[in-house]
Design goal:
The chain is α/β, with parallel strands linked by helices. Helix content is 43%, strand content 17%. Strand 1, helix 1 and strand 2 form a beta-alpha-beta unit. Helix 1 packs across helix 8, helix 3 packs parallel to helix 4 and helix 4 runs parallel beside helix 6. The longest helix is centred in the middle third of the chain and has 35 residues. The termini are far apart.
């Protein structure tokens, strides 16, 4: 059933992992989707595989000006914008007493500042569009903003002071925006994921690096944290990207029209951070 037929979405960080799985699900249910990734080749390949309803946009949303260009590209491609999923992110772990200002600020930039800029850029096409519809006496169209946070932002994680702070800030942004934009039938919610099987949670010994502003950053987590995470999840394992995407899809769907200002914990029952 194409419950999102005619809707247009942008998903940051959607070339792989949770973002890619979310894009697949939204397209499957009728939406058009802008796919964003740091790597132009990854973004273009994902959009190509998703079909004619997808377009690619390469760029780091943490860089000034990129959010405005991203939103403009989505509106240019689809003529409208109904769904924003702020999913882009990475980890740059370290203990507090050895963490640099750059390392701390980088997590604030990607996990809190970038979503703020994307939402601000989307305002004319979501908030202002809804206001104009209301003034014309039209039936409200429910639009959706979903911010991807983490249980690290709710409970903290050893070695992730920067990441936890950024993700906690995103929850605050979600709550504030829900109060500002609720009257325009724009549902604003967050999903707090626990352990999801992506390249960010791969064993560090086998994980990839990414290049951010000329710096190589090692992804992944120590093997002992992976083992601890599995032992603290009642379901006994981490989520697949497809399972994670299901929660985001729900918050993008008509079934969430009265779900607003919430943080949906998707953790397999895990109630503590991986480093606790």
């Amino acid at each position: 059933m194409a419950v999102l037929e005619g809707r247009a979405a942008l998903i940051t960080g959607s070339g792989r992992g949770i973002g890619r799985a979310t894009a697949e699900l939204l397209v499957e249910h009728g939406a058009s989707v802008l796919v964003n990734d740091l790597d132009a080749g990854v973004a273009e390949q994902a959009a190509s595989e998703l079909g004619e309803r997808a377009v690619a946009f390469a760029g780091n949303v943490a860089e000034p000006g990129v959010a405005d260009t991203l939103v403009a590209r989505a509106v240019e491609a689809f003529g409208r914008l109904d769904i924003v999923v702020n999913n882009a992110g990475y980890t740059w772990d370290g203990v507090i007493h050895r963490m640099s200002d750059e390392q701390f600020q980088a997590m604030l930039d990607i996990h809190a500042v970038a979503p703020f800029r994307v939402i601000r850029a989307a305002a004319p096409h979501m908030r202002d569009a809804a206001k104009a519809e209301r003034e014309r006496g039209e039936e409200p169209i429910f639009r959706k903003i979903v911010n991807v946070t983490s249980i690290s932002g709710l409970m903290g994680n050893a070695g992730q002071a920067n990441y936890a702070t950024g993700k906690a800030g995103l929850i605050g942004l979600t709550k504030a925006l829900a109060k500002e934009w609720g009257s325009f039938s724009i549902n604003v919610n967050a999903v707090a994921f626990g352990f999801v099987q992506t390249r960010l949670t791969a064993a560090r010994e086998d994980s990839e690096t990414i290049e951010i502003e000329g710096r190589e950053i090692q992804l992944g987590i120590p093997a002992q944290f992976r083992e601890l995470a599995a032992s603290t999840i009642p379901l006994g394992r981490g989520a697949t990207p497809q399972e994670a995407a299901g929660a985001i899809f729900f918050l993008c769907s008509p079934w969430s029209n009265f779900v607003h200002g919430q943080v949906l914990n998707v953790t397999g029952g895990q109630i503590a951070g991986m480093g606790s």
